[in-house]
Every structure is written in structure tokens, then in C-alpha cells.
Amino acid sequence: MSGDLAQFRADVRSWCREHIPADWRAAQTGVSDQAFVDFQKAWFAELHTAGYAVPQWPAEWGGGMSVPEQIVLYQELAAHDAPRLVLAFVGIHHAASTLLVAGTDEQRRRHLPAILNGEIWVQGFSEPEAGSDLASLRTTARRVGDTFVVNGQKLWASGGMHADWCLLLARTDPDAPKRRGISYFLMDMTTPGIEVRPIRNAVGDSHFCEIFLNDVEIPATNLVGAENTGWQVAQATLGAERGMTMLELAERLGNAGFRWLVDLCRRQGADGRPVDDDRVLDRLAQFDMEITGLRGMCRQLVEHHESGGGGPADASIIKLFYSELLQRLTDFGTEIGGLAAHTQLAKPLSSGWESGAWVLDFIGSWEWTIPGGASEIQRTIIGERGLGMPREPSAV
User: Fold this and answer.
1) What digits encode the pLDDT tens for the residues 116-145?
2) Half-sphere exposure of 204 (CA within 13 A, CB side)
3) Which of 143, 291, 342, 378 is within CB 3.0–4.6 Å of 254 for a Cys-Cys bond?
């Protein structure tokens, strides 16, 4: 490690010791939505003040960290059990990537500083009949002069009840092939005609929302890219941000999730057996190797993106590998935790998918293997775009 990078690690480590709230997990368990929002915004402001909130952004917009520096930052935040930026996630990753890759100068000037000041975003992609097969979406946007009039419904919109703005996909040409008639919009969530309804899940959380759109007017200046090219914009921006996002998630899975899993095995063993049970040790060794591989792939994806290279299926490979590894690891934690793990019915709202509440983490892991393109969809992309295999026959 170079001297500059070692000094950077020391600086981040010192900052973490001084600024990460020691009792945040207890304070964020079982709290109200408003307490969650207040904590998230305060934590984001703390990271922003230190220059750690958006390291993957270009320097002129408040980022500019090298890939090795980003890795060090995420390693130290994970090792010191820092809260995750759950509420800002879509804004600092999806929205920022979209604006930086495909937005206009005016859109970037309007929204990037606002995101740094706490503007919250939600992703309006999935619909009741268009989840994994997102290109089948039915929400329509009809152009009327300098505006688009939008009607439809969005589903599984994470954090929609708190959002100020929405990344919206809508069909602008109903007669075009389904991937060619979609446009990409920036939608102000205070616009008349928008109704947000939280969806309460089996454990009592309301992380997801439905968004109903009734004659919602969006200015044409809020169109991202050309009309009817929204599918291409979405694919480009999601691919660009996925590696940046996964750098953090891979480090958290290794530094938090895996460490807690090892501690759990050390305390309890498997089904009452001692921790030196060969089957337990084999599983831990396998997880360790897979996490190491995930870290390497994430770093390679980001480096390729920064150099303008990379393969057409790289983002899908990362998404598939991470989501299924997360699911296997949390499943194993649930197995090792036994009956005690099944009685833990709450987790900190500002934690990630590896909070140590193993049953809840395992349930939450399905959020990664289904939304954003199910594992089956990712395998199709890898086969067709990455390996050059024949396309699957169309059902229509």
C-alpha cells in the first residue's frame, strides 16, 4: 500500500471512531418513520461534510476519489459498523448516474447539488404487470405541447413515501416494439395527480410503496435523453452505477455480514455441535472465497467503467453473484442461529441486508434476487450478451 493510501486509511479510521454513533443500532430499532428520516438526513450531512458521501461522483460535483480510495473508505465504514445511506441510496447512485451519463447540463446543475443537500429520490420502474420483464410496462406518457401527461401505476418503489423526485419510465410510443417506445423522465413528487401508498409487509415494515399517476404533467425539459430511448438510458445508467454500488455492498457483506456469521458459529456451533464441525468450517471457507471473488469483480467492473471498457454483461454478473451469495449467507445464518434467530422481529432501519437479524435478513435478501431483474433475467443477459448465445425465442 502506498504511503498516501495508508494515510488516507488512517484518516478515515480516525474519522469513523469520532463520528459514527456508537448506539445507532439500538436507537434505530423500532423507531417511527420520521425518526428514521431525521437520522438518515443527519448521517448523510455528516458524511457529506467529511467528503465521504459521494466518493464515486466526479470531483467537480463533490466526489473524485480513486477506486483504491473508495475501497478503503467502504472497508473502514463497514469495519466500524457505520449506518448505511438507505434513504439517499437512489439519489446518490441511480439518479446521479443517470444525470451524469445522460442528463442535460441544466438537469445536472439543478439536481446534483440538491441531492447533496438532502433531496430524496425514488425509482419508478416496476409495475404490477412489469417486474422482471420491465419492458412490458404500461404506464403511458402522452405529449401535449411542452409537457407529457402521465397515467399509470408503479410498484415496489422503495422509500416512495419520503421521496422528493422520481426516476420514471413511461411508454411514449404504444405502437413501437416494447423496448423502443419507452422514455425516461425526472418527476417532481409534489406534482398534482400523484398518490403514494405504502405497502406493509409480513414483518410490519413499509419500505415499499405503490405510486398512482393520474394525469400527471411532466415538463418536456424533464425528459432524460431523446424521446423513446428511455430503455437504453436505463440500461446504460444502471450498468454504470452497479459497480459503484457493489463496492460498498461487497465490503459490508465481508466486513459485517461474514464477521457476524463467524462470531455466531463460534458462539453456537451448528445444531449444538462444536464450532470445529467440518461442515460448518467448510461453509465458512466457501463464503470467504466467494466474498473475496465478489470484491475482485466489483473492483474490476469499476476500473473498467472508468477506463471506458468492460463487457455488456458485467453488471448482470455482479448483480447475480452478489444477490445469490447474500441469500445463501443469510440462509446459513438463519440455520446456525436456530430458534433464537426466529424470535428476532426487528432490525435497525438504517442497517443493510446483513444486520445480524438473520431471519429478517434472509427475507430481505429476496429483494435482491427478484427486483431489478430477477436471477433468471440476469442469466439470460449473461448468456446472450456476455457469451453470445442465441436469444431466447419470443413468446409473442
Assistant:
1) 999 999 999 989 877 667 778 999 999 999
2) 10
3) 291
Upper half-sphere CA count for residue 337 (Cβ side, 13 Å): 20
* Active-site residue, selected from the candidate residues 127, 241, 290, 354: 241
Q: How far apart are CA 29 and CA 135, in angstroms?
A: 37
- What is the C-alpha to C-alpha distance for residues 255 and 169, in angstroms, rounded to an integer? 36
* Locus of grid cell 441544466: 106
Distance separating alpha carbons of residues 380 and 369, to the nearest angstrom = 14
From the number of C-beta atoms within 10 Å of its C-beta (0-12, 13-18, 19+), residue 396 rates as exposed
Active site residue 241: yes
Q: Which residue in the block uniquely carries the three cell numbers 466526479?
A: 58
Q: How confident is the model at residue 275 (pLDDT cuts 50, 70, 90)?
A: low
This prediction has a pTM of 0.89
Question: How far is 1 from 218, CA to CA, in rounded Å?
Answer: 50
Q: How far apart are CA 245 and CA 242, in angstroms?
A: 5
Question: How much is the pLDDT for 203?
Answer: 65
pLDDT of residue 303: 81
Q: How far apart are CA 246 and CA 12, in angstroms?
A: 20
Instruction: Label residue 59 by pLDDT band (50, 70, 90).
Output: very high
Report in angstroms the alpha-carbon separations of 67 from 85, 97, 256, 305: 20, 16, 21, 11
Q: Does pLDDT of 357 surpass 70? A: yes
DSSP reduced 3-state for 210: strand
> Which DSSP string corresponds to 217-245?
EEEGGGEESSTT-HHHHHHHHHHHHHHHH
The residue to which cell 453456537 is assigned: 268
In the chain, count H helices and then E strands. 13, 8
- What are the tens digits of pLDDT across the range 178-195? 888 999 999 999 999 999
Cell of 306: 472508468
Residue 108's identity, in one-letter code, is R
Structural domains of the chain ordered from first start: 3-95 (1.10.540), 120-228 (2.40.110.10), 232-386 (1.20.140.10)
User: What distances in angstroms separate CA 222 from CA 31, 64, 127, 150, 180, one per listed residue?
Assistant: 36, 27, 21, 13, 19
Taking the C-alpha atoms of residue 258 and residue 88, their distance in angstroms, rounded to an integer, is 25
pLDDT of residue 343: 86
Q: Single out the residue of 306, 310, 254, 315 nearest to residue 66, CA to CA.
A: 306
